[in-house]
TrEMBL record:
Entries under SUPFAM superfamilies matching the protein: FnI-like domain
All copies of domain VWFC, residue ranges: 1-53, 53-114, 111-172, 178-238
InterPro entries tied to this protein: vWF_C/EGF_Fibrillin, VWF_dom
Localization per Swiss-Prot or TrEMBL: Secreted
One GO cellular component term: extracellular region
Organism annotation: Irena cyanogastra (Philippine fairy-bluebird)
Protein name: VWCE protein
Annotated PANTHER family: VON WILLEBRAND FACTOR C AND EGF DOMAIN-CONTAINING PROTEIN (PTHR47333:SF1)
Key words, A-Z: Glycoprotein, Secreted, Signal
Principal location class: secreted
Any one of the GO BP annotations: cellular response to virus
Alphabetical list of PROSITE patterns matching this protein: VWFC_1, VWFC_2
Length: 269
């Protein structure tokens, strides 16, 4: 996107995608959020993850430390602490609730639930017989059931798998790379393949994880007039001499191109 990134650097792209620069390639994936509270606030503007610096309860945002009563809680008091909502209700003697009185918190107890031949107390949570993927709750004589919430997965959709008898999908292990694919020229090298990308002083190898590792050869010239062989990385000081554009073999004598009265000899030292 026109911006240079250092190797190993990380940044966040629009759409809550976390990217990193590795070996000249940009790898991006969806930001994985770990939310350590039960009632987080939605992600702030420009952010990706919900925040636990307040609470979202029944669609209403509550500040840290707020004390409030829920809309359907007769004399129930709740408090928002670190993104968690804790509620306390008065303990009342058993009784039915034909017409609850707002003035008297203990005028009655919520009605129990009779569901599929069983009786559940108000607020009880249970699963349907043979279906651990559904959670039910008794609320004032009525039973409400919903699917069990699943954790957020940090793998792409094509790597998710729902096994027999499972409620939630899990991440499959990504397939092992068969080789290294180079986007610039469309060539795929098998794992362990060694090649030169065009510079004879640079060699690359395809790693087992599908990445490409390259290393340059540093040449140390030990003579002033080496022979340079096309396709060979380092100059050759053992085969002869290169002088004034011509190649002479070891111990060969020739006249100097600068002074015809001078005689030169190629010596390998």
């Amino acid at each position: 996107r026109g911006i240079s990134r250092e190797p190993g650097s990380r940044w966040t792209e629009p759409g809550c995608r976390s990217c990193t620069c590795q070996g000249g390639r940009v790898l991006c994936d969806t930001v994985s959020c770990s939310v350590p509270c039960s009632h987080p606030l939605p992600a702030p503007a420009g952010g990706c993850c919900p925040t636990c610096t307040g609470c979202l309860h029944e669609g209403v945002a509550r500040a840290e430390g707020d004390v409030f009563s829920p809309s359907d809680g007769n004399c129930t008091v709740c408090v928002c602490l670190a993104g968690n909502v804790s509620c306390l209700s008065p303990e009342c003697p058993p009784g039915s609730c034909p017409s609850p009185s707002l003035a008297d918190c203990c005028s009655c107890n919520p009605e129990k639930c009779n569901f599929r031949g069983r009786t559940y107390a108000h607020g009880a949570r249970f699963s349907l017989d043979g279906d651990d993927c559904t959670t039910c709750v008794c609320q004032g004589g009525e039973v409400e059931c919903s699917f069990t919430p699943c954790p957020m997965l940090d793998c792409p959709q094509h790597q998710r798998h729902l096994g027999p008898g499972q409620c939630c999908s899990t991440c499959r292990d990504p397939p092992a790379p068969a080789g290294c694919f180079l986007d610039d020229n469309g060539v795929e090298f098998p794992v362990g393949q060694i090649w030169s990308p065009g510079d004879p002083c640079e060699l690359c190898i395809c790693q087992a994880d599908g990445s490409v590792s390259c290393q340059r050869t540093d040449c140390v010239e030990t003579c002033p007039y080496p022979i340079r062989i096309p396709g060979q990385c380092c100059p050759d000081c053992s085969a002869g001499c290169t002088y004034m554009g011509r190649i002479f073999s070891n111990n060969e004598t020739f006249p100097s191109a600068l002074d015809p009265c001078l005689s030169c000899i190629c010596l390998v030292r």
